[in-house]
Amino acid sequence: MKTELLALIVPLVLIAAAAVAATVLLRFWRGSVGRRAGPLELLHVIAVGPRERIALIKVVDRYLVVGITPGSISRVAELDHIYDTVNNPQRDKTD
C-alpha cells in the first residue's frame, strides 16, 4: 500500500515542479515583451475579423497603426501626434 502511494505521489510532485520551473523560465525568457520598459508599447488592439487585427503601437515617440493577419503584419498609418488618454487623462482634448 505504501509503495503504491509513493509511486503515485513522486511523479505528481515531479510534474508539478516541472510546471512551476517552466512558468518561471518563460517569464524571464520572454524579455520585455508586454512590459513598458522597452522601446515598444502595444497601446490598443481591435479585432476586425476572426483572425485579423488592427493594432496601435508606440515606438519611442512615434505611433504606428498596423494590420495583423495570419500571414503578415503591415503598416497602415504612421501618426505624428495623437491624444494619449491612457498616459494623460487630465489633458484637454482641444490641444
Structure description:
The protein is α+β, with helices and mostly antiparallel strands. The chain folds into two domains: 30 residues; 56 residues. It is built from one helix and four strands. A four-stranded antiparallel β-sheet has the order 1-2-3-4, with no helix packed on it. Strand 3 and strand 4 form a beta hairpin. The longest helix has 28 residues. The protein is elongated and about 70 Å long. It starts with a helix and ends in a 16-residue tail after the last strand.
Number of strands: 4
Q: Nearest-angstrom radius of gyration?
A: 22 Å
Structural class: alpha+beta
Percentage of residues in strands: 25-35%
The biggest sheet amounts to: 4 strands, antiparallel
Broad shape: elongated
- Seen as an oligomer or otherwise, the chain set is single chain
Number of domains: 2
Residue runs with pLDDT of under 50 for 5 or more positions: none
**Number of helical stretches of at least 4 residues:** 1
Task: Give the helix level as a range of percent.
Answer: 25-40%
Order of helices and strands: HEEEE
Write out the strand line-up for the largest beta sheet, numbering strands in chain order. 1-2-3-4
What would the average pLDDT be, to the nearest integer?
A: 80
Instruction: Measure the end-to-end span.
Output: 76 Å
Please name the defining characteristics of this protein.
alpha+beta, 95 residues, four-stranded antiparallel beta sheet, 1 helix, 2 domains, 29% helix
What order do the helices and strands come in, and which of them pair?
Blueprint: H1 2-29, E1 40-47, E2 53-59, E3 62-68, E4 73-79
Antiparallel strand pairs: 1-2, 2-3, 3-4
